[in-house]
Structures are given as structure tokens and as C-alpha cells.
Amino acid sequence: MNVGLLLHVTILHILWIRFCIGIAAETFPSSSVQSDFPKDPISVEIISVGNIHAASTLASLPYVAPGMSIALEKVQKSFGNSVSFKHTLLYDNQYKTCAVFTDNVDYLVSNYFYSKRTVQYNMTVFIGAGCTERLSMGKLIRGWNSLMMIGGAGETVFRNKKLYPNVVLGGNNAIKSHISSFTRFFARYSWSSIYVLLDSSATPWHLLVVGNLVSGLNSKNIQMKSAKTDIRNPNASGDLAVTLRDIRSSSRVIVFLGFPTEFRAFMLQVRTENMTNGDYVYVVNEPFHHRTYYGNLTWMYGTQRDQEAEQAFKSVFLITSAPETNTHLQTLENELKMRSLRDFNFTYAPDEKPNLFAIASYECVIMFGIMLQHILHASVDLSDGSAIGRLFWNKTFNLDTGIIQFDEVGERKQDMIVQQFQKGDVWPTTILELSGSAELHENVTAIEWPVPFPPPNEPFCGYSGLSSACLPSDGNYSLTTIISCSVFALAIIATCAAAIKIWFGVLSHHEDWQTFVIDRKGLHPFTDSARASLIRTQISSIVYSFRRSRNDL
User: In whole angstroms, what is the distance from residue 504 CA to residue 316 CA?
Assistant: First the structure.
């Protein structure tokens, strides 16, 4: 009996506990009784669109895909079995250049998205660096409302969040930072008349810069003129001469966008035109130093004209991204090189380092993984790329490669520097730094101007030399009047001097001649005192005539 009673009480106790647990489950928020991630694993596909040919661009897949695969392994480990990732590399072997790839990227992406995917993923993300195809495929991805993270130099139109709320600009060579460095450098010295030269040797980077630079200068009310040059073409020397005449008449600050070899030839040309005497400033730009794709920006080529080039380059300033200083990068760079060889049979040059596109692509995947943790906790719709993109606005990430900050529209803030060739050094010296979060440059090294001061925006007497500052302050005489009077006076003085010299020369050779003069008193010998009196009278008459003619003008 006692055993039966005990069993009955135990059963009642168990039922009571189950009842209480049921009440608690209905009373407390669901988050307090659920695990951190969904019970069923979610699937995520990361699509990286790019060129498979390494020679086409520094943003090709052999450069940037290894970094993304390294990052994805770390992200997968952090999620365990709660999330499964697939990394799809989307390319076509027949597209060997940026231009051809751009012309066909919309078909490549849409064909895969609609026809070739065999699995429907919970979330689709596009992460890559890109060359010139970003805008073409960006329109498609916007229509699908998928998240798009750009680890390359994204066009500034992506900052328009009415058009592209789903795009995150995660590249550490942000075009906006480069343009801001230009405009702030010009403002530092009150240069407001800029001449932009786009050479035929321009790289895809320069082509991207020129359009954004023009719009950036216009937004700052800076007067700008532009021209195209073809420095490598000897038959275009006449066109260059016309351009240089136009520069002399309109600007003292010249931006040259082209390959370093052509830029050096240009600087030698302007030196022969006496345009490196301190009156002019020449500004060049590169996203980062790379011998193959951006050339060696230096005056030393081992030629007979190196000394001339060295003097010319004293007027040159280079705007570029600040170098990476994180010691962790050395380990990452070694791994990137190894995987490029293993996965793509691509070997870096002996002195070549993984570029900023490769580093940024690695960082984009890491940042996406961090944000995905937040998304899953916050129950954000995985298919809403626009909502996910907004989560990056004003966000800061502390990565193993360094601290990354995003601005108010989800574009990475980048540190920039300005460099100058000093003391005959082969490579430029950093003179100014511009933090990604700063408004003004900070001094690093004193600038060495060819003359003791920076050139003014406009010469004191104007580009033509006819500025009102160089004319009489009362403004009573026109330029024509001044020139006419000066010529008239010089002509009179020269004529009188010649006549007097001839006259005295004749008298000195004919001392036996008797000269007479006729006046009111009759005929008299022409004595020395009479000669002196006549000369004084003639000079007085000339001066009187000059004064009268000037008053008539």
C-alpha cells in the first residue's frame, strides 16, 4: 500500500513539473527558451564574379579568391554545423580582358542565377573586387535585392542609397577617399583652377578616377579644364604643344592620369618649356604601388636624361593610399601566395606582394561572417539585402588585419597620404597624411618647394600678364595709351640724339666755316653761346610737344 501511494504521489509531482514548464514556455519570450541559432541549419551561397585570367587585372580571381577561401574557412568554423556555406566562382575563360568581361557579365550572372543553380539557398551574397563590371552586374543584383560587398574600387554611384541600398563598399582603396584627398590637398593651398590630363596610357583605375574627380571638383566649385594626351605617340607632339599653351593660360595645377613611363616623358617635355621652375604643380595618383600594373613612378630610368627628370620631379606630388603596417599581414600574404599557386597555378613575381584587392576581399568575407552572427540573433530577413546592407552603416570592425570603419552610407573609410620627391631620392617621401575620419591633412615632413613658397592659384599679373593689379592704380590711361606714349618718346629721343651727334660732328670737322643765324635783330655769327641757346629752345619745344600729345590722348 505504501509503495502504491508513493508511486501515485511521484506521478502527480512529475505532472505538476511538466505543467509548470508548459506555463513558463508560454509566458517568457521565445528568445529565452530557444538556442542562439535556428534548429535547422541555414544555407548561404557566396558568389564571386571575376576574371579568371590573372594578367587582365589585379582584381582577377587568381589574386582575390584565395583570400576569400581562407576567410570562409574561419567563418565556417565559427558557426559550426548551424550554417553551411558554398563559395561559387563565376567566370568564363573566353573573357580575357576587363572590357570584354564587362560587356558580357550581365549574361554570365543572370544565366547562372536563373538557370544553373540547382539548390535554393536561404541567403545569397555577392562578394568580390571586380574590374569595370561592377556597375553592370550591380543593377541585376539590386533587382534581386541580394547583398553585394565590393572589395575593390567601387564607383561613387553606389553611395546613392536610393539606387543601391544593398551595396557595401568594403574595398581599402575607396575611390571617395582618393577624391577627397585631391580636393582637400587643393584647398590646403587655395588652388581653385585645376587642369586634368587623361593620357592614352591610363589604366582602368585612372579611368575610374577621372569621372569621379571631375564631379568632385565641380561639387567644390573648382574651375576645371581637361584634355586628352597621347604621350607615347610621336605624331601627337603638336597636340601636346597646344595643350601646354592652354595650360599656361588657365592653370598652375595639373593632374596627370596615366602610366608612369608616359608621365616621366611628359615631365621632361614641360621642363623644356620652362614649366618646372616653381610656377606649376603636377599631381599624380595610384591606388597602391605595383610595378607591373601601375609602373615605377620615379625619375630614375638609367638614361642620359635622369638628371633632367630629377629636377622636373621636384614639382611632382603623389596621392595614394597609406601603406599597411599590420604585422599579421606577412603571414596572410604568404598564405595567399601559396593558395594562388595551388588553386589557380598562378605564381607571384619574385618581388610582388598581394595587393589591396586581395586583402580587402579576405576582409569582406570576415566582416560578412561577423554581421551574419548579428543577423541570426536579430531575426533579420536573410533575403533582404537592403536591410542587411544598412547594418554596415557607421559600423566598426576590429579584424586581425586592423580596425575598419564604415561611413554613413556603408563605404569604408581609408587613410590616404601625399608624397613628394625630395633630396634626389629615387622614391617619394610621405609629407602629408589624411586619416579616413579626418577633414584636414596632417604634416609628416616639410614640403620642399622648388621656390621658397607654393605657387599661387593664379600669377600676380594674371595668366596673360594683363591683370589690373599690374596697371596704374588710378586707371586713367589705357594700355594702348601707355604703349603709344612710350614709343613716341623713345622715337623723339633717338632722333634728337642722332641729329645732335651729326651736327656737332660736322662742325668739328669744319672749324673754318663761319655760321650765321637770323633772328629779329638781323644776321649774327653763330657763336657757342648762340648754339647753346638754340639747343635749349629745341629741347623745350620737344618736351612741350610731348606733353601736349599725351594730354590729347
Answer: 62
